[in-house]
């Protein structure tokens, strides 16, 4: 694939993704979704045409055709199921979020969300069918009348931050694709757009118009609860047996540490921890406002199980994310002033404990870099790269290569700076950094608007989980590369839009979804 066609195809895929985010369901959005669905695997195939993985498939034409037919057949079958039972589409997307399949791409092992991609394909095919523009959920009128979630932004005509969030999200997608054109590693930028931004835009489009009523929200909670407990069981078996299924790097690391980190079915213990932290936040959201004893007992057991699994991940960023989400819930449940004061006091106490435990040596760059597993050097290197190109950066996906070329170090970075704003600043400069900051601010505003006056437990859960994810990305990055972020954005917009037409009667309706 020539550079011209690769760049043109990349921009076309980004424009189609923007159309998916911005356009209402109908004749215009359906073709945009189809174009995005076709282009993102085609561009990956063209980019990796000479990689060993693709060469092996090219040499085995029957295998290539068989895999293609299997993907098409699976997508068609899913489209039939989603058409027959629309509520299964959002449930299938949520269920597929954690599962990754390790494949070789670009000389490295890429853990691809193949199950999610197949669900997306089925959802897009469903949207292409007559009357398939809005999928999932039931009874939007009833949901709006009772104030228990539900509704569609397209149907309610959102205004204010609810209208600006998709515009900022689409703007970031387009900017990321444009800045990949001058990246020192165009292939990496293209892969990021095609593996993450374009398919996750389809996820956003499919979920934005779902009616999130009480029934669907309860089913979603059951799905994430069952999966989380299963993942904790696998992680516990790994911890007791002292054996991991995969990731040689973590296996070797465990041999030199006094503690043993588990990753369950996830590639990285930090991603495993992130997922459990988000489930814990969502479960705590329902637990804090639960009224029935049976519900209270089940949610308590779920929180305890997830907390137990989180311990063995030894993921400090995940614990920080959990605390961030719980702080949001405490502010909504009791008092944001007292919560803010408690968070500030804990932060000061934490700094004092670190200083007293390690003395002034903790303040030295070398000690700090050791304590953070090399991330301090990556952050300082990212800031150095930002200083060299403060306006437009080095280009999307260009952090690893730019770091190796411009930073004096013996060790190349693993992937990014492990701090989302630093990665964005180095790769996209002030253009991307300001757009990213605006997106986060508007997203939080959209999710939080009116919650202190008119509580919806569903909106509180989305807000707390999104805040936890943002906190985690500050220590581990991977915000836009995590489909959960796009799901939370879509659900947050949908619930906020449904809350706009009429006001919930009770100031603290504890029976809200």
| Cα Rg | 23 Å
* Low-pLDDT sequence parts: 135-156, 501-513
Strand order of the largest sheet: 1-2
The helix count comes to 22
Give the DSSP E fraction (strand runs of 2 or more residues). Answer: under 5%
Main beta sheet, described? 2 strands, antiparallel
Give the proportion of residues in helices: over 70%
The secondary structure category is mainly alpha
**Count of distinct strands:** 2
Question: What are the secondary-structure elements, in order, as H or E?
Answer: HHHHHEEHHHHHHHHHHHHHHHHH
Descriptive labels:
513 residues, mainly alpha, two-stranded antiparallel sheet, 22 helices, 2% strand, disordered C terminus
Descriptive account of the structure:
The protein has 513 residues and is mostly helical. Helices cover 70% and strands 2% of the residues. It has a two-stranded antiparallel ribbon with strand order 1-2. A hairpin with a 2-residue loop joins strand 1 (101-105) and strand 2. Helix 2 (29-47) runs antiparallel to helix 6, helix 10 packs parallel to helix 22 and helix 15 runs antiparallel to helix 16. It is globular, with a radius of gyration of 23 Å. Mean pLDDT is 83; it is low at 135-156 and 501-513.
């Amino acid at each position: 694939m020539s550079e011209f066609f690769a760049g043109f195809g990349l921009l076309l895929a980004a424009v189609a993704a923007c159309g998916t985010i911005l356009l209402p369901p109908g004749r215009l959005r359906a073709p945009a979704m189809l174009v995005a669905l076709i282009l993102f695997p085609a561009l990956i195939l063209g980019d990796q045409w000479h990689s060993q993985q693709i060469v092996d498939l090219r040499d085995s034409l029957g295998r290539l055709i068989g895999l293609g037919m299997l993907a098409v057949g699976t997508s068609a079958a899913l489209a039939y199921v989603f058409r027959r039972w629309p509520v299964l589409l959002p449930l299938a997307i949520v269920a597929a979020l954690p599962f990754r399949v390790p494949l070789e791409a670009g000389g490295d092992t890429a853990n691809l969300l193949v199950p999610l991609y197949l669900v997306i394909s089925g959802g897009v095919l469903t949207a292409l069918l007559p009357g398939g523009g809005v999928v999932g959920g039931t009874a939007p009128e009833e949901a709006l009348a009772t104030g228990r979630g539900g509704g569609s932004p397209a149907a309610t005509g959102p205004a204010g931050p609810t209208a600006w969030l998709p515009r900022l999200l689409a703007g970031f997608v387009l900017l990321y694709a444009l800045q990949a054109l001058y990246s020192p590693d165009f292939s990496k930028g293209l892969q990021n757009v095609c593996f993450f931004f374009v398919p996750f835009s389809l996820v956003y489009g499919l979920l934005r118009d779902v009616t999130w009523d009480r029934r669907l929200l309860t089913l979603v909670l059951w799905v994430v609860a069952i999966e989380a407990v299963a993942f904790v069981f696998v992680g516990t078996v790994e911890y007791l047996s002292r054996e991991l299924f995969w990731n040689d790097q973590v296996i070797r690391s465990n041999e030199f540490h006094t503690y043993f980190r588990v990753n369950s079915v996830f590639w990285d213990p930090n991603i495993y921890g992130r997922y459990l932290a988000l489930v814990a936040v969502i479960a705590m959201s329902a637990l804090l406002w639960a009224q029935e004893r049976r519900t209270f007992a089940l949610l308590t057991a779920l929180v305890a199980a997830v907390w137990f699994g989180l311990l063995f991940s030894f993921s400090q960023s995940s614990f920080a994310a959990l605390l961030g989400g719980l702080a949001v819930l405490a502010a909504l449940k009791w008092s944001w002033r007292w919560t803010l004061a408690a968070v500030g006091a804990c932060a000061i106490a934490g700094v004092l404990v670190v200083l007293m435990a390690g003395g002034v040596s903790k303040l030295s760059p070398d000690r700090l870099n050791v304590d953070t597993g090399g991330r301090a050097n990556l952050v300082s290197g990212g800031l150095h790269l930002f200083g060299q190109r403060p306006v437009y950066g080095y280009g999307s996906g260009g952090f690893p290569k730019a770091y190796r070329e411009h930073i004096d170090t013996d060790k190349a970075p693993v992937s990014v700076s492990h701090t989302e704003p630093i990665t964005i600043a180095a790769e996209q400069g002030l253009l991307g950094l300001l757009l990213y900051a605006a997106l986060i601010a508007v997203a939080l505003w959209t999710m939080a608007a009116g919650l202190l006056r008119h509580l919806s437990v569903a909106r509180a859960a989305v807000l707390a989980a999104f805040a936890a994810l943002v906190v985690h990305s500050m220590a581990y990055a991977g915000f836009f590369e995590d489909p959960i972020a796009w799901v939370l954005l879509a659900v947050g917009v949908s619930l906020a839009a449904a809350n706009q037409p009429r006001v919930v009667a009770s100031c603290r309706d504890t029976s809200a979804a």
